[in-house]
């Protein structure tokens, strides 16, 4: 008995609102919603049958009024439960409904028992037997309908089965005593079945809840993995994978709705020196700041993603026109030009942007990305810090470039490549000190090709190492015929410096050449060094070991990291021609050239000024003590076979008079 009381306490306490009971309550309520209407229909039907049988025998209030009230109450409850089917109730309301069900089970049990016992004296053996059958079959039906709420079945046992069993057992009639015993046994057995069924029901609900929780956790982890897989781990911005997925989705939407779509690529200018000078940790901090700033600029107008390294992409849905796209690009470039405040330093960088628009620039994601990349490349090549939108002109250039690239792949390089030589002069005497070797290509099918075009294509298609091999061989064969005082300068590409195999081939050519290695100047660009500084340093050291000299070309254009000048074993710096062009009129250019000249003198390096085209420029460079110059003022690039005649004419020409400053230095 104490165990039964304890079970009843636990069962009743389970109807208290709480997160732990919420799912169980909801499952009980959903099951009752299907069974309670059936229960009320059976109660109404059985009550009407008993009332009909006792109508001629019992008083009006017992066969009409009392059962009428009972039927009306059951009908009202039936309507209430039917209305609540399909409605979403909160946990507290469901708990109240369940508590009400338990209370009503006890209350209705008392009402039905009292009514039946009051009807009992008004019938004969048949009516009394039918009444006993009514009570027993009705209670069994209630048991079956309320199995999900065992507290209700317990109260029915207390208020119906137990009183009737006692009543029949006290009658002294063997038949009624046997009926009472049968009712107790059946009710007890069904009570045990109900308890076990309820426990299994609770276990099933808990298992379902646990499974649902595991599914939620699995879904949460899946969502988190998906989020992480689509976000850049450093900046938190969408990554390359998310960018292309979004591109496909937005492109499909734009195609279906007849709208425009713009894809943009942004590349930072000056980021790598930050990495190399301040370290990768500072570089990462800068990338995070860049992503935050660009995200703010884009706002709701475009989705920004980090594609890798210092390259970002953006998608702009339904821009009004090219002016709208260019306006966003310009805002991004302006934002990048603002200084970035970092611990102990202030960093300045810039950026270039290329855009392609659907449907004008392409119909597929791959085509749009390729054309945006081409626009970005054009921006970086022509004017860094600008915004370029892919146009029909670019499309024509792509076709021409593809044609040139195809012919370059199939060209007979030994016969079609040649070398032109431009004199390098002593500014004090006007005499030639050496020549710079310049690549020229006359295609058998296309004719003369601009060197900037085919060299850039050779680098892009990994053919530049082969060009270097052919051109270096021809350069050394021509230079072997020159007087001993003349040097030769030869340009190495990024791929030459970054490839150990290519450098091994270059070293082999130098060792087999009759031209002395100590009369060779290899020119490298700042960009070539930035790509892979460590490998570039190893390559330069290999050339220096053979006796060659190394010059840093185009100094001042691009990044101009003084740290590299300090760390690399350089012999000469070539001042970019952009500073020489307006050196007569621009005080800033003049000061920059003077600074570079002074830097070279302090570091023990020689200095060459490129692009000298006027006497005024030469005079200004002489005044700044720049002793070596190069440009059209002296001679345009010439074929190797014309050099003897050029040198002969120079020998018969009087030397340039030295300025007062030059005589003082001498």
Assign a percent range to the helix content: 55-70%
Summed over residues and divided by their number, the pLDDT gives a mean of 84
Pick out the low-confidence regions. 12-19, 657-666
Biggest β-sheet: count, sense, barrel?
Answer: 8 strands, mixed, barrel
CATH superfamily of the largest domain: EAL domain
Topology of this protein?
Elements lengths: L1 H12 L5 H36 L5 H25 L6 H29 L5 H21 L4 H21 L3 H56 L10 H18 L3 E9 L1 H8 L1 H19 L4 E6 L2 E7 L4 H16 L2 E3 L2 E3 L2 E9 L6 H18 L4 E3 L2 H19 L2 H4 E10 L5 E12 L3 E3 L1 H10 L3 H16 L7 E5 L2 H5 L1 H13 L7 E6 H6 L1 H14 L2 E7 L6 H6 L4 E4 L1 H5 L5 H17 L2 E4 L5 H9 L4 E2 L8 E2 L3 H10 L7 H6 L1
Parallel strand pairs: 6-7, 9-11, 11-12, 12-13, 13-14, 14-15, 15-16
Antiparallel strand pairs: 1-3, 1-6, 2-3, 4-5, 8-9, 8-16, 8-17, 9-10
Helix pairs in contact: 2-3, 2-4, 2-5, 3-4, 4-6, 5-6, 5-7, 6-7, 9-10, 10-11, 13-15, 16-18, 18-20
């Amino acid at each position: 008995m104490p165990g039964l009381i304890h079970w009843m306490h636990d069962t009743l306490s389970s109807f208290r609102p709480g997160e732990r009971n919420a799912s169980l309550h909801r499952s009980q309520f959903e099951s009752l919603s299907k069974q309670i209407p059936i229960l009320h229909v059976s109660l109404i039907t059985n009550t009407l049958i008993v009332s009909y049988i006792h109508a001629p025998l019992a008083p009006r209030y017992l066969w009409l009024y009392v059962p009428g009230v009972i039927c009306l109450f059951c009908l009202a409850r039936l309507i209430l439960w039917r209305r609540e089917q399909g409605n979403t109730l909160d946990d507290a309301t469901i708990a109240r409904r369940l508590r009400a069900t338990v209370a009503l089970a006890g209350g209705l049990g008392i009402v039905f028992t009292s009514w039946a016992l009051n009807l009992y004296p008004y019938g004969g053996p048949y009516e009394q037997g039918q009444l006993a059958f009514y009570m027993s079959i009705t209670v069994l039906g209630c048991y079956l309908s309320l199995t999900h709420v065992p507290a209700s079945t317990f109260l029915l046992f207390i208020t119906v089965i137990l009183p009737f069993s006692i009543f029949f057992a006290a009658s002294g009639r063997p038949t009624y005593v046997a009926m009472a015993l049968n009712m107790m046994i059946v009710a007890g057995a069904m009570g045990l079945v109900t308890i076990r069924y309820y426990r299994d029901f609770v276990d099933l609900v808990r298992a379902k809840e646990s499974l649902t929780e595991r599914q939620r956790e699995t879904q949460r982890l899946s969502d988190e993995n998906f989020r992480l897989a689509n976000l850049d781990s450093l900046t938190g911005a969408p990554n390359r994978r998310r960018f292309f997925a979004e591109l496909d989705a937005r492109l499909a939407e734009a195609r279906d709705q007849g709208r425009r779509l713009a894809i943009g690529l942004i590349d930072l200018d000056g980021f790598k020196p930050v990495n190399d000078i301040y370290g990768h940790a500072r570089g990462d901090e800068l990338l995070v700041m860049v992503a935050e700033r660009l995200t703010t600029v884009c706002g709701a107008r475009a989705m920004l993603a980090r594609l890798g390294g210092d390259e970002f992409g953006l998608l702009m849905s339904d821009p009004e026109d090219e002016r709208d796209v260019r306006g966003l690009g310009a805002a991004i470039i302006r934002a990048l030009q603002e200084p970035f405040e970092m611990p102990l330093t202030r960093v300045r960088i810039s950026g270039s942007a290329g855009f392609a628009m659907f449907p004008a620039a392409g119909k597929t994601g791959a085509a749009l990305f390729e054309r945006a990349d081409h626009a970005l490349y054009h921006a970086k090549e022509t004017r860094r810090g600008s915004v370029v939108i892919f146009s029909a002109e670019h499309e024509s250039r792509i076709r021409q470039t593809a044609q040139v690239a195809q012919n370059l792949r199939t060209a007979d390089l030994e016969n079609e490549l040649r070398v032109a030589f431009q004199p390098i002069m002593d500014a004090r005497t006007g005499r030639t000190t050496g020549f710079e070797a310049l690549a020229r290509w006359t295609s058998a099918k296309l004719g003369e090709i601009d060197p900037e075009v085919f060299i850039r294509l050779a680098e892009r298609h990994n053919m530049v190492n082969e060009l270097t091999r052919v051109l270096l061989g021809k350069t050394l064969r021509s230079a072997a015929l020159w007087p001993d005082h003349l040097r030769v300068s030869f340009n190495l590409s990024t791929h030459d410096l970054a490839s150990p195999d290519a450098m091994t081939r270059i070293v082999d050519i130098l060792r087999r050449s009759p031209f002395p290695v100590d009369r060779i100047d290899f020119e490298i660009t700042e960009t070539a060094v930035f790509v892979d500084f460590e490998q570039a340093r190893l390559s330069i050291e290999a050339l220096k070991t053979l006796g060659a000299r190394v010059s840093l070309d185009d100094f001042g254009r691009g990044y101009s990291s003084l740290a590299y000048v300090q760390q690399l074993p350089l012999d000469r710096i070539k001042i970019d021609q952009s500073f020489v062009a307006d050196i007569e009129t621009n005080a800033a250019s003049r000061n920059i050239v003077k600074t570079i000249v002074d830097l070279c003198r302090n570091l023990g390096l020689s200095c060459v000024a490129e692009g000298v085209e006027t006497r005024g420029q030469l005079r200004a460079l002489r005044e700044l003590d720049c002793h070596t110059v190069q440009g059209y003022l002296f001679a345009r690039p010439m074929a190797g076979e014309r050099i003897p005649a050029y040198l002969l004419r120079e020998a018969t020409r009087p030397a340039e008079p030295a300025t007062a400053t030059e005589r003082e230095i001498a």
